[in-house]
Amino acid sequence: MSIVLARIDNRLIHGQVLESWVPYVHADCILVANDAVAGNPLRKILMTAAVPKGLGVFVETLADAAKLLAGGLLIDRKVLLLLATSDDALTLYRLGVLFGKLNLGNLHGGENRRRVSCTIAFAPEDLANLGQLEAAGVRVVAQCIPADRERDWKKLSPPPER
Amino acid sequence: MLPLGIRLRILLRLPLLQASWNYERMQSLGVLYILYPALRFIYRDGDLVLACQRHLQYFNTHPFMAGPILGTTLALEEERSLHTEGTLDVDEFKAMIMAPFAAMGDAFFWGGLRPLSAALALLVAAAGCWWAPLAFLLFFNLPHGWALIAGLCGGYRHGSGMIARVQRYRLPDLAVRCKEVTALLLGALSAVLVADALRAAEAAPAWGPCALLLVPLLGGLARLGVSNLILILLMAATLLVFLG
Amino acid sequence: MVWSLDYLYAGLVSLLVGLDRTAVLQLLISRPIVAAPLTGWVLGDFYLGLQAGTLLELLWLGRLPVGAAIPPDDTQIAVGGTALALAMGAGAEAEADGLPMLLLCLLVALPLGKCGQIFDRLARQGNGRLLIRAEQELARRRPAAATRWHLLGLGFFALASLGTYLGIILPGSLLLPWLAPYLLAKVGDAAPWLALAFPLVGTAVFLGALRNRRILVLYLLAFLVVYFLREGL
Question: Which residue, among C213, C190, C218, C216, has the nearest Cα to C204 in the 3D structure?
């Protein structure tokens, strides 16, 4: 297997991924690892309908995604791995999917989340999860689209308080 | 059934979806603004406030795909108020459809149709026709207007059946075709511009294909992270030093 | 500093097309191919504007306004660049000096336009407050008042457009009279090549970002076929 990009993006498959990242990293296959979407047939259909022919797409639960990546099916594919939360990223890493670098795309605001950049808002558990991944040797960087600068996740500064 | 007046007001409000786009919840306030005339018709007092709060949840999609999405939202909202609710909850529907439809809209309208319209207009302009900007607007806005108007009406009429109808257009594949045609048009445009420039400089036409080497070179530099701004300024500086 | 009432009229155009960028309709009158000729038409020289538009259109065509990513403000560069060029006398009466002056003005406007992304971000942050206000109105059970805050966002986006326009026009109109005597002759010699560089850089970046071999082959084929049809073998 070769994961050309592992990305946390709460929107999973959307324009930034399909229009910017897929051509940039030359991915030929998208793997969405998310329990909720994989368990909901309508969401699964919607998600795959946004992808053009010729680009492979798999929507799997975390456990199945780990199995799929460990098996031989994707052996010579360039996989773009999409995760919705830092929790999922840590779980998948512990299931043996050892990505070397983790891209933070969109983690939008919500209850008790603190915004640290335009597109990223951390909850306390995000900090803990990402810290563990980093300790395990994963480089965690924030970069919304390829044209943006790559920034270390710890150096993200909160915007001015209002 | 919503009265025609209310449906018209919603259609007129639809183009203002992104007027208060923000990083917290993106288009959510826009959605509330658009749906408000209908919500006020369907709900009263406390129920109205609750409905408004529901629609102030995080929402973001492609602005043109908001037509079909909000059309279906209206239909589902009406079902809900009549307690004939089917299997699909309004809020759940909006939450799950926004990202896939955004991806389709981004791919087709921004990634496919916009460059295609631009390449077409530039060729028209290169041929010396003054109406190139009008051609651009017309070519882009026919599908745009269709998505908003037919999308809103179709979404309202067919409810969740709208999803299958939109999927039938195969927008992601259509976008790929658009890009291929754009590449052809840009090739023709480059050839015309290079030929004209060489003729103006009285250089041998055999130099023309050499300009082709520049394209992968510049594209490669751009991929290495050199911004367009730096590229064009670098090119300008080089030309000024050698020719100026 | 060259000052003229035309800057005011161009400012109105900048407001109109600036709102089209994100806030209203998105008919794409904000694209350079429309915004620049519109500015030119309002100021009395449609064709100079059309030329500016065709030079700028391809540069950032591949940057999509997807999600929270803000592309460079080519709209205000088109409006500001055209207005500067006309104020500097690049119109029809300039004859051979028209194109070099236009190119010089665009080259000055391009880096100045970087401020557009900052203003755009500020507008979107300002809109965040409108959302808070709307929530407060809902908490007070005043839904109609909540929806009215939405329209105030138009004001923030309009201010961002004007800010970017002024960020190009003010330094530009100070710099250009000072730069032009040194650079205009130099630009004049390189003008046809510079005018070619704009669309070629735009095309290269656009195709480069797609990273698709099939697309590149189609481009090369179309180029060669059209080129040899025009020039003969």
Answer: C216
